[in-house]
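Quick one:
INPUT:
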C-alpha cells in the first residue's frame, strides 16, 4: 500500500506479512515504522514530521562524521559541505534528505532506489537500491550500491533505527553488544583512540542494564557467529522480551546511542542501534573504508528480529 500525500516525509509505503509491518518514507528512503504482532518496536515519527535525530535514515556514502568535511582520496583533496556546523563536521552522508523512488513492490517487500549524482566534494555517481521485506523472521534490509562513475569511489554505509521495548525505559533496558573495543571520541565526537573494554563500564559483551550510562559510542572488534552474523540485543529484564538487530560481515562496527542529546519527549526514550561498515572519520583515516571500482556492485544485509 502507498499513499501519495503532501506529507513532509513524502510518499508513504507499507509492507506487511506474518504479523510484521514496516512503513517506508520517500524522503531519505527512510524506515519510518516497524511493528511485530501489533507492537511498535521502532521509535519512528509521523509522516508529516522531519525525521528527528536521523531516525530510520540510510547513512551513505559515509556514516557518522568527517572532520572539517575535508579528506584526501587517491591524491586529491575534497571539501564537503559542513552539515553539522556546530562541530564543524560533515555528517551522515548525502542520501538522507533526497527523494527515493519505488521500483518494485509486493505485499511484503519493496525496493527503493536513488541515483546519487556526482557533486562538489563527492564527484562520483552511485546508484543505491534498498530492498525492504518483512516475514515471520522480522524485517530484512538488503542494500546494494553500484559505482556508475568511471573512477574509484570511497564508500561507507550505516542505518539509524531507534528501538524501544514497549513500556521499558532506556535505564531498565538490558543491552548486549558483541564487541571487544570502543572508540574514544573528542568533544566533536571524532575518534581519538581505540581501547579495550573488557571489565569496564562500556563492556556489554554480557547482557546488562544500561542504567544511567550515557551512550553515543562506537564499538569495534566485533564478534561474529559461525553464520557470519553479528547481533546487538535489547531486552526487557521483566518479561524477557527482546529485540535483535543483526548484520552481516560487511559491518565492522556498532554505534549505540541512548538519545541523551535529543530534545523534548524523545530525550532518552529509545536506543539507536546502528551497524556501520566503518568508524567515524574513515574518509580521513582510511580505516575500513570501502573503495568501489568503476562498475562494481556491493551488497550487504541487516535486519531486526523480535
Amino acid at each position: 500500500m502507498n499513499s501519495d500525500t503532501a506529507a513532509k516525509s513524502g510518499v508513504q509505503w507499507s509492507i506487511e506479512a506474518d504479523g510484521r509491518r514496516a512503513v517506508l518514507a520517500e524522503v531519505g528512503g527512510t524506515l519510518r515504522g516497524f511493528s511485530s504482532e501489533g507492537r511498535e518496536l521502532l521509535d519512528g515519527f509521523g509522516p508529516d514530521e522531519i525525521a528527528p535525530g536521523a531516525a530510520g535514515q540510510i547513512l551513505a556514502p559515509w556514516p557518522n562524521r568527517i572532520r572539517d568535511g575535508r579528506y584526501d582520496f587517491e591524491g586529491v583533496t575534497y571539501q564537503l559541505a559542513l552539515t553539522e556546523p556546530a562541530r564543524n563536521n560533515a555528517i551522515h552522508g548525502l542520501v538522507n534528505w533526497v527523494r527515493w523512488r519505488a521500483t518494485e513492490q509486493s505485499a511484503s517487500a519493496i525496493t527503493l532506489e536513488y541515483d546519487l549524482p556526482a557533486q562538489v566534494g563527492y564527484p562520483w555517481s552511485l546508484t543505491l537500491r534498498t530492498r525492504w521485506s518483512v516475514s515471520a523472521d522480522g524485517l530484512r534490509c538488503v542494500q546494494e550500491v553500484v559505482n556508475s562513475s568511471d573512477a574509484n569511489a570511497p564508500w561507507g554505509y550505516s542505518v539509524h533505527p531507534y528501538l524501544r521495548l514497549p513500556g521499558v525505559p532506556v535505564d531498565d533496558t538490558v543491552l548486549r553488544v558483541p564487541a571487544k573495543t570502543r572508540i574514544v571520541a573528542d568533544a566533536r565526537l571524532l575518534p581519538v583512540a581505540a581501547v579495550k573494554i573488557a571489565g569496564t563500564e562500556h563492556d556489554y559483551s554480557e547482557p546488562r542494564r544500561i542504567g544511567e550510562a550515557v551512550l553515543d559510542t562506537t564499538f569495534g572488534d566485533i564478534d561474529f557467529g559461525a553464520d557470519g552474523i553479528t547481533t546487538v540485543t535489547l531486552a526487557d529484564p521483566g518479561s524477557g522480551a527482546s529485540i535483535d538487530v543483526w548484520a552481516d560481515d560487511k559491518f565492522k562496527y556498532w554505534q549505540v546511542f541512548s538519545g541523551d542529546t535529543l530534545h523534548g519527549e524523545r530525550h532518552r526514550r529509545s536506543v539507536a542501534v546502528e551497524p556501520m561498515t566503518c568508524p567515524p572519520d574513515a574518509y580521513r583515516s582510511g580505516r575500513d573504508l570501502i573503495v568501489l571500482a568503476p562498475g562494481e556492485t556491493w551488497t550487504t544485509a541487516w535486519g531486526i528480529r523480535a
